[in-house]
Specification:
By secondary structure, the protein is α/β, with parallel strands linked by helices. The protein is built from twelve helices and twelve strands. It has a domain of 223 residues: Rossmann fold, CATH 3.40.50.720.
Length: 334
């Protein structure tokens, strides 16, 4: 059996993809930067970097399937060009390696941020959208990377694109911006909320959706991998029920959140400290990211579970792995 390459296995979603493939009997090879950890995974490690085309080619050598899940997923970066080098040029390097290697299938992990959202409605794979609608460098870089994937699909590379929404669950190491919402809630750092909405999905189901896209997806097509459309208030209510921590009751106006984000992000440019409230995150929050995943259900057989269990696993994992200080856990329990 040829090995299967997974990029991003040291991160949240890539870890779940690599674990699922290993459990299904695939020989998994992971591209990992020097010093990064492949925690709890029994996979072959190839050191390299998405921005280094030669190392990507080494990792892809002999692989029949490639899952490109790695991305620079930040809502603020001091050097904005880094995000584009990793997300856009890194994707080009992976697809160029797939082209040269003659890979049988490539699954590229895009984002729901590249999906058009009609005013007051739900977005889907057919909704028109342009780069001008991308709020922030992360979304712009992923939009450009998706265009690269479509370019290589037209060149004959058998690439299928998946657009996960906001995965939640265990092993969110960094954590991701969505995981940060959960962690900030547990740490008591969320005294208020704004009117916004996300589509949440279990990270384990999202990994399964990648495998289903590999097995059943149509080359050059996009598939939203999502589950439940929830307002931020509803998400915090679920976290309150799971943890016993009261949900914040104060809803702040968007203008106040924008002003706070502008000040915080401006200070970060001077100090180099990551802002607690990145302005790009506030801009994203202005639009509810509500979407439909009917195409993935119809064409891939994608069948995600309700997200409550995934939220419970996220809370338990953050508490069990040192993200929540013991004193804080004891005060919650009491």
């Amino acid at each position: 059996m040829k090995p299967v390459l997974v990029t991003g296995a040291t991160g949240f979603l890539g870890w779940h993809i690599a674990r699922l493939l290993s459990e299904r009997g695939y020989r998994v090879r992971a591209l990992a930067r020097p010093g990064s950890r492949l925690r709890e995974l029994d996979v072959e490690r190839v050191e390299g970097d998405l921005r280094d085309a030669a190392s990507v080619e080494r990792a892809a050598a002999g692989c029949g399937l490639i899952f490109h899940a790695a991305a620079d997923y930040r809502l603020w970066a001091r050097d904005r060009a880094e995000m584009f080098r990793s997300n856009v040029e890194g994707t080009r390097n992976v697809l160029e390696a797939a082209l040269r290697e003659g890979a049988e299938r490539v699954v590229y992990t895009s984002t729901v941020g590249c999906i058009g959202i009609p005013p007051g409605g739900e977005g889907d794979e057919t909704a028109p959208v342009g780069e001008a609608e991308m709020a922030g460098d992360y979304k712009r870089s992923k939009f450009q990377a998706e265009r690269v994937a479509l370019e290589y699909a037209r060149m004959g590379v058998p690439v299928v694109i998946v657009n996960p929404t906001a995965p939640v669950g265990d092993h969110d190491f960094k954590p991701t911006p969505t995981g940060r919402i959960i962690l900030d809630f547990l740490l008591g750092r969320m005294p208020a909320y704004i009117e916004t909405g996300l589509n949440l999905v279990d990270a384990r189901d999202t990994a399964m959706g990648h495998l289903q896209a590999c097995e059943r997806g149509v080359e050059g097509e996009r598939y939203i991998l999502g589950c439940q459309n929830l307002t931020l208030e509803q998400i915090l209510g679920k976290l309150a029920a799971i943890s016993g921590i009261p949900a914040p009751r104060w809803k702040i106006p968007y203008a106040m959140a924008y002003f706070t984000g502008m000040i915080d992000t401006g200070l970060s440019r001077v100090t180099g400290r990551e802002p607690r409230a990145p302005l790009d995150a506030v801009r994203m929050a202005k639009k509810k990211m509500f979407v439909s995943w009917k195409k993935a259900r119809r064409e891939l057989g994608f069948a995600p579970r309700p997200v409550d269990e995934a939220l419970e696993r996220a809370v338990e994992w953050f508490q069990a792995n040192g993200y929540v200080p013991e004193a804080r856990r004891l005060s919650i329990a009491s």
